[in-house]
Amino acid sequence: MQDNEHKQGKKIDITGKRFGRLVAIEEAYRIKEKTYWKCRCDCGQEVAICKSSLLYGQTRSCGCLKRELLIARNRAKRGVKIEDNKLYNSNL
Ligand SMILES: [Zn+2]
Question: How many A from CA of 46 to the centre of ligand 1?
Answer without folding.
Answer: 8
